[in-house]
Amino acid sequence: MRLEWRLACLLGLMALLTGGLRANELFGPAPLDEVSVRTLPAFTVIETDGTGTLDKVWDHGFQLGARYAALAHSGLNTPTVLTFPDWVKSPVADGAQVHLLVQILLDPLPGLPRVHDHGATLQQMPSMTVACYAQTGNYSPASFLLGLQKIHERMKARNIPEVGPPRYLYYTTTSWMPSWWRVGEVQVPIAAGAQ
Questions:
Q1: What is the DSSP letter of 107?
Q2: What residue segments make up the domains of the chain, in order of their start?
């Protein structure tokens, strides 16, 4: 365990020094450890859905996105967006049967080729306003639920309704990154102009 930790630190430091810590960031994370509201820009994604654990579905979606980006000569961008489309009917983030949409952000190039992977589509996501909570640490159901709870407390206090399902954004694209360098962000779409 100690050797793995040292190796992860060494690789992380090398990535930091060489500029390879993250893919291109289309937009950065929200301020850490506080609920805030912001408007995200429009972006292009390759989207797929899957059922499984957070890690399993994210890994499948990220591999699919990386294959497509290589084919399309497009860069990958962070964050990766995991949306819980069934949250209203089934508010579950833990276990082996979580249904998620995985969206891998791409460079918005003109004339991107058709997606050949079964169950994946190219989507243009509109600009949206979100209530958000970012934190460092492992990407986990517990971290997601903590952020969601903090957002819901603020929304309830200010009587702000949700207009879409919650999302979990991964700003780090590697699983070996030490948890204190990983930034995850929970988002809940809200009406434009809500604070």
A1: -
A2: 22-190
Where do we find the tokens 């004339």? 111
Query: pLDDT tens for residues 10-58?
Result: 333 343 333 333 345 678 899 999 999 999 999 999 999 999 999 899 9
Instruction: Please check whether residue 114 is in contact with residue 125, taking contact to mean a CB–CB distance below 8 angstroms.
Output: no
The span from the CA of 45 to the CA of 76, in Å, is 9
* pLDDT tens per residue across span 130-155: 999 999 998 999 999 999 999 999 99
- The answer to whether 106 and 64 have CB atoms below 8 angstroms apart is no
β-strand pairing of 167-170 with 76-83: antiparallel
Relative to beta strand 76-83, strand 24-25 is parallel
Strand-pairing partners, residue 2, are none
Task: Report how far residue 173's alpha carbon sits from residue 66's, in angstroms, rounded to the nearest whole number.
Answer: 11
Q: Return the SS3 of 88.
A: coil
- Which SS3 state, helix, strand or coil, does residue 149 take? helix
Q: What are phi and psi of 155, to 5 degrees?
A: -65, -40
Class of 22-190 per CATH?
A: alpha beta
Phi first, then psi, for residue 38 (nearest 5°) are: -150, 165
Q: How far is CA 122 from CA 68, 76, 104, 115, in A?
A: 10, 13, 10, 7
Considering the entire predicted model, what is its pTM? 0.83
Amino acid at 22: R
